[in-house]
Each structure stands twice: as structure tokens, then as C-alpha cells.
């Protein structure tokens, strides 16, 4: 295996802080086209500050030693200080990395957790990263953004979050294929064969790393994909077809079994809830 698939986590370096007093944060922006296809942003490394990795456009993958996170536009993940990590951007993706020292946070980041990054916060973080302004104004703006990012509503877990992802390299291509095309009509066995995987291997990986079978995990991927489409205005029947269901009734029954409400009820509730709307909205 090459270094991309087996990064040397044991020897990862800690980068020095890039935030000077009195500033409270700093943001770096990385374009997928700058990296080349399939390349990591950098070798595995860590920072003395907490890091918020977030996606502005496309798809960004954040890798930790034993887990990985897939970010779509408007989604972010907090990474605790001194936690080894790296990232990969798909073509045309724009990923952003905001660093916040512990003393600037009301609550310390002590675990990896997903968070919604509202569009207004995204634009302001980007604005601060490329425009000069008086120091006192910049610090005030940074404090407001930190307060917004620490809003509990943005990290609320309520069953709508995306399914967990196994980090085992043996199933990585399979995982990415399902995420990129949730409605692929092929059976699990056909997918395993395409990727040269034995069914028992897949079962062991998914059971040990995400606590569910491949079939359960794939259903979760389809449901979250469909939920995003529905909240975005896609008709229920079309969302079901795009998620691998032949009939609207079969899709609606599966959706209600997964989320506890019909697709239309789910969409109405999400559109009425600002935090939910921010999570499911796709910015493209």
C-alpha cells in the first residue's frame, strides 16, 4: 500500500501556532484543484489549538487515525487540540480550516464532533481570511463568530446526522462508491465483487467499526441522502428513486421506519427549524 492509504500517524508532527495575540482565530482555505486528484492536504499532523474543519463547496474528507468524516457544504467537524489528522478534497472542492485557541472558547473541544456552519458564518470567516481591517474590529468580529459556532443548536444530535463511516482501508473504495451513488441498484454482493471484497470481511469491518451490518449502513446512507433532497424541494417520489427505491410507497415506508415520520412530515419539520434547515440545506 502507498503512503496515502497508510499515513504514518506515529511520527506525525505538531504544527506551531499561527495565531498571535490579540487575535482569537485564524482560517486557512484549501482548493481541491490545488492538490491534484486523490492527494492529501498534508501528511498527518496536529495543532496546539482546536480545529474546525468545514466544507464550503464539494466534498471534503477529514481523516483521523481510526475514523473518517465526510463533509458536504455547510458541514464541519471540531477536532480537539493535538489530535493527529489530515484531509482530502474531491475535485473542485473548497475546504476550510479554522483554528481557535482554548482560551478563546467558552467550552473546550475535548472530543471530535460534527457541527453545522451557517452560511453567514462561512462567508464572514472567509471575509476575515482575505481582508485587512483594524485590529479591534477584527477581534470583535472573531468573538461574535466564536459565539455563533458554540451555539448548542449547531451541534445538536437528533437522528438527522449522517451515518458513521468505517475507516478500514479495505472498504474505503466501497464506502465512497455508495456515498457517491446511494441509489445504485446493484446488490451488496455485486458491489463486494466489484471491489474485490469477501462478504465476511465487509461484515467484520462494519460490525466492529460502525456497529451495524453493511445493509443497515447502506440504508442509512440512502435515507440521509433522500432527506437532504426532500428538504431541498425534490418531490418525494423522485427522491425515493434517486435513493434506490422502485416505488414511492416502499420508499415512504422505509423512510418512516428510519426517521419515525413520513417524508413530508420530516420536510415540514426541518423547514420550520432553523438548525435543521441549515444542516440539510445544500449550497452547491
Description:
This protein has helices spanning 119-130, 135-149, 172-180, 188-194, 199-209, 214-231, 236-242, 248-259, 263-272, 274-280; strands at residues 13-14, 26-31, 45-46, 50-57, 60-64, 68-71, 75-79, 85-89, 94-100, 113-116. A five-stranded antiparallel β-sheet has the order 2-9-4-7-10. The protein has a three-stranded antiparallel β-sheet with strand order 6-5-8, with no helix packed on it. The protein is globular and about 60 Å long. The chain is of the alpha+beta class.
Write the layout of secondary structure elements.
Elements: E1 13-14, E2 26-31, E3 45-46, E4 50-57, E5 60-64, E6 68-71, E7 75-79, E8 85-89, E9 94-100, E10 113-116, H1 119-130, H2 135-149, H3 172-180, H4 188-194, H5 199-209, H6 214-231, H7 236-242, H8 248-259, H9 263-272, H10 274-280
Helix pairs in contact: 1-2, 6-7, 7-8, 9-10
Question: Can you tag this structure with a few keywords?
Answer:
284 residues, alpha+beta, Jelly Rolls, Arc Repressor Mutant, subunit A, 2 domains, five-stranded antiparallel β-sheet, three-stranded antiparallel β-sheet, 10 helices, globular, disordered N terminus, disordered C terminus
In sequence order, what are the helices and strands, one letter per element?
A: EEEEEEEEEEHHHHHHHHHH
Would you give the CATH topology of the largest domain? Jelly Rolls
The whole-number mean of residue pLDDT values reads 84
Distance from first to last alpha carbon: 34 Å
Task: Provide the helix percentage.
Answer: 25-40%
CATH superfamily of the largest domain: Regulatory protein AraC
Strand order of the largest sheet: 2-9-4-7-10
Largest sheet: 5 strands, antiparallel
Query: What does the overall shape look like?
Result: globular
What's the domain count? 2
Radius of gyration: 20 Å
Secondary structure class reads alpha+beta
Beta fraction: 15-25%
How many strands appear in the DSSP assignment?
10
> What is the CATH class designation of the largest domain?
Mainly Beta
Total count of helical runs of at least 4 residues: 10
